[in-house]
Each structure stands twice: as C-alpha cells, then as structure tokens.
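Entry 14. Structure prediction run on the chain below.
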Amino acid sequence: MGFSPILPADGARAQTQFQSTRARFEAAGIDYYGAFSVGARAIININEILYDRDNAQMARAVPQLMDTLIADAAKHGYGEYRTHIDAMDTVAATQNYGADASGVGAMGRLNGVLKDALDPHGILAPGKQGIWPARYRA
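Output returned:
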C-alpha cells in the first residue's frame, strides 16, 4: 500500500513532511520505507507501507496509518499523487473545497456530474478515485 503526497518544491516543507510521516510510521510499529521524486515545481514523497499480512496487529495498524497520513497531508494542503483502492474514498473526501451540506466539495460534485453523463449506468470502474455512480451516492 502506498502513500504519496505532492508538495511544493521547498526543502523545508519536504523535511517537515518527511519527519512527520516517519514518526507516524514508527508510532504504528511499521518500518519507514520512502523516497522523494523532486521536480522543478513539486516534490512527491513516495512511501510504501510494507507489512506482514499474517501479523494481525500490523494488518490492523495499516488502515489507521493510511487514514492518519492522508489527514496529515490534507491539513497542510497536500494532495495524493496516487493511492491504494482501499483509500480512494478517503483521499477524495479531502478534496472538499466548496463543500455543500453533505460535505461533498466542488470537485466531487463535478466528478459526479461527469460520471453520470459519460457512464449513466455506472458500470465503468464504480468508485474508482472516489467517483461513484448516482445510485451509490448518498
């Protein structure tokens, strides 16, 4: 499972984000395994959560770690470069600018309109990237 936030190309922010992420891994009892991809405009902190699926304690810790990492990144305004299918709804929920009473942001509403127009029966990858067909939306 991977966690890869995108942040501005700023060394101080990258250092702070690295330290925070590594501390979260350590608190969860999981070894930190990460790297940075650095470009002129952005830095991607690519983290892989490697764990023993047969270890019940680790298996329980991973979803909690992902939720915490995603929330931490969102607090700083960092979006996800990519995420595991199990975390797509969580990541999509962080993109909530202009949220309505249901908590769905402008991007989520636009994605829903496009999904319904292009895939009215909701058969093409329902839920991928947190974009659900109308019949599955609350």
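The CA atoms of residues 111 and 131 lie 6 Å apart.
Filed with the rest of this week's runs.
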